[in-house]
Amino acid sequence: MAGVRQFDERVALERALDLFKERGFRATSMPELAAATGVQRGSLYHAYGGKEEIFLCAFDAYATGFLAGATAALGRPSRREALLSLFDYCIATFAGGTPAHGCLSTRTAVEAATESPRAETAVRAMLDRLEEIVCTRLAELPETPSPLDPRAAARLVVATTRGLAVMERATYDADELRAIARTLVRALLGA
């Protein structure tokens, strides 16, 4: 039937996402996407329009899943536990796997900004949403006494998650990354 996709879009986007995680936006080509997804290039172009659109669809699914995991990780009963849980979650997402592929959003922010303003916008939207999730959760956990400004703390937490992702790429192991996260949490909340 004309106009009906002859492939499982969910599976194709998962495979495309795996390839983007492995190679990054810039280094991934349409022939590689076709091979990874098992979908002919013409069908990919017809369904999505091109590499950027495939990336944006895959990244949207990635961001949705990542933010849901971050929200769940923050569901601890104290600010300290919530933040440490969030950092553990973030570290596990970019340091997990063999080999580890790092953080797709951080990699995209660094490499795709000059090539794809839409990808840059998608990353910014994800990070803004993460900041809002962290801020909301910190505000919900009013521990006294606390000079903590939830918005400023949330922005610092998000910036640190991106820094940890870069450090993981520079061969810091998960224990070293967790030690950095614990230091930040102590600085924010006290000993």
The succession of helices and strands, N to C, reads: HHHHHHHHH
Q: What's the total number of strands?
A: 0
Distance between the termini: 65 Å
Radius of gyration: 19 Å
Structure class:
mainly alpha
Describe the structure.
The structure is a single chain. Helices cover 75% and strands 0% of the residues. With 191 residues, it is mainly α. The protein has a domain at 59-189: Tetracycline Repressor, domain 2, CATH 1.10.357. Helix 6 crosses helix 7 (117-140).
Brief overview:
Helix content is 75%, strand content 0%.
Task: Tag the structure with descriptive keywords.
191 residues, mainly alpha, 9 helices, 75% helix, 0% strand, Tetracycline Repressor, domain 2
Q: What are the SSEs and their pairings?
A:
Layout: H1 9-27, H2 30-37, H3 41-48, H4 51-73, H5 79-95, H6 104-111, H7 117-140, H8 150-169, H9 174-189
Helix pairs in contact: 1-2, 1-4, 1-6, 4-5, 4-7, 5-8, 5-9, 6-7, 7-8, 8-9
